[in-house]
Sequence to fold (92 residues):
Amino acid sequence: MILDRMNHFFKSKNYHYELTFRVVLYKKQLVKGLQEINWSEADYDCFSPLEQLLIYMNFNSKKFMNMLTGRISKEINSLTDSMELVFSFARP
Fold:
């Protein structure tokens, strides 16, 4: 997803937005952030290092937002199901 966006940015001749120094700086910071991620780190609390970077960078992608909210929703639902199971055994 990120590579597709970056490839489009580098190869496109027409942009649906104004190409400014700020846009180029954002892309540069995104690439730098991706390079700094410890990809071997498998132990994290809530968000992966990649998700943390994209949230911090305010990565504006519907696909990313759908993936992230879908994952969070799954985790909430699994916790809700687990809590219902725990409470069902605790009732007299």
